[in-house]
Amino acid sequence: MMKKYLEQSSWINWQHPAILVKAKLLSAGSTDKTEIARRCFEFVRDQIRHSWDYRQNPVTCVASDVLEYGTGYCYAKSHLLAALLRANGIPAGLCYQRLSKTGNGAPFCLHGLNAVWLEGHGWYRIDARGNKPGVDAQFCPPKEQLAFHPDQPDEADLLEVLLSPLPQVLQVLTRYATVEEVYQNLPDIPITLDSADGVTPIRSDTRHL
Fold this sequence. Notes:
By secondary structure, the chain is α+β, with helices and mostly antiparallel strands. The protein has a single domain (2-202), classed as Roll (C8orf32 fold), CATH 3.10.620. The chain has helices at 17-27, 33-47, 51-54, 63-69, 74-87, 167-175, 179-184, and strands spanning 49-50, 71-72, 92-100, 108-118, 122-126, 138-140, 143-145, 156-162, 201-202. The chain has a 5-stranded antiparallel sheet with strand order 5-4-3-8-9. Helix 2 (33-47) packs antiparallel against helix 5 (74-87) and helix 4 (63-69) packs across helix 5 (74-87). The radius of gyration is 16 Å and the shape is globular. The protein starts with 16 loop residues before the first helix and ends in a 7-residue tail after the last strand.
C-alpha cells in the first residue's frame, strides 16, 4: 500500500537530478526517517518562499521548478515536499483544506498541505506553506500543528491522502502566469462534494492561527 506513495509523477518528479541532490543533502548523516522528514519539512517551510506572502513570480507547480525558483503557492510547496520525502524513501501524499480567503465566510479556496507516513505514528499531516505572524506550523509528532484549522461554516478538512494534485489545483497553477492572477482564481471545492473524486469533506471544530 505504501509503495504507491513513493511513485514519481509529472508534478512530483522526485527523480529529477536537482531533487535527488537536495534530498541527499537533507538526509546527510542520518538514517532516521522521522528526522529526515523533519528536515525536508523545515527546508520547504522556511527556505521556499510562499508566492503570495512575497508576491514572488514565477507561478510554479512541478516540484523541480519550485526548488529551482525557490517559490510557490502552498500547493506547489506541497508538491516539492512530497518529492523530497519520496526521494528519501518516505511515503508522502497530498492533502487539502477548504478555507475562507478572508477568514470571514465566502469566498472560499483550497489550501494545500502534506501527509507523511511515519513509523510508530502512521499518517501525519504537515503544512509547509511558510510561517508568519498568526501562522505557526511545526513538525512535532504525534501532535499535529498545522497552519490552519477550519472552524467556520463551509470550511472543512479534506482528509484523504492523495497520490497526485487535484485537477482544480493543476488547472489554476498551469493556466495563470502571475501570482496575482492565481490569487484572484484560487481553486475551490464545494463541501457538498461526495467522495467520488477521492476527497471526503470532514468538519473540524477548532482553529489555532
